[in-house]
Amino acid sequence: MGVKAHEADIALELHAQLGEGPVWDERAQRLFFVDIMGQRVHSFEPTTGQHQNFEVGRPVGCVVLREDGGLVLAAHDGFFLANRDGSGLKSFGDVEIDGARVRFNDGKVCPRGRLLAGTMDWTKQQPVGALYILRGDGGVSVLLEDITISNGLAWTEDGRTLYYIDTPRQQIDAFDFDLETGAISNRRPIASFTGVAPDGMAIDSEGCLWVACWGGYRVERIDPGTGRALETVRVPARQVSSVAFGGPGLDEMYITTAWDDLTPEQRAGDPHAGDLFVAHPGVSGPPAYRFKMT
Ligand code: ZN
Predict the structure, then answer these.
(1) pTM of the full structure
(2) Bridge partner residues of 81 (DSSP)
């Protein structure tokens, strides 16, 4: 059986070193995302083409939206609050991380308004990272250790199952997620990959996962029940890093890419590396949850 294929188009040319972590702000109809190694938070309004960005001053793994209108960042070795234009940046949360060994990478807000964000080994070799949960009062707990490159996060519609990717394992794991405490348990693999590194992901309204394939020029739609790839979005850039649904109907798929990890020769042959792409795969996704300060 063939796998249905869609094509992605350029939404915004910006040649980010490590574009990552798109999140759709449905109130403002605006996409936020980061350039981790470029140390910047970007935002983009598709209807006008307006693009803004601000410098964070350290590698910024992810940006998420707050219920009260501001942003939360997980950047290098800590969490930060900021206004939407980057002003008012200040440290938040009680966490101690060895920034010489690891840095923050992907993160997402859970259905109850807390932030799950993980770290990764700077050398991408050792399982020295962890997955953290940041609560609205600034309290932080470790949910999972022995992670090498913490990446994609997604919850089922009922919030009781968390899907998670530690990239070098080349698989998606599922956990039971305790909505009250944020605790995770019962880890089990649900899908595996060969030849590519699964990175960021988003869940759609039918419960399927769209997984960015680093090194694979594509996003794959995975059925979590069977682990099979159902559809693919072809992306004209090699390092596909993450994906989020956006637009007025939440049926536009925004895809971040990177030129990080490419040799000069590879980069010369990959002229759209680091651009933002959009596709219309014919399905929508749920709106992003917002972080709740308490
Ligand atoms: Zn990632």
Answers:
(1) 0.97
(2) 72, 90
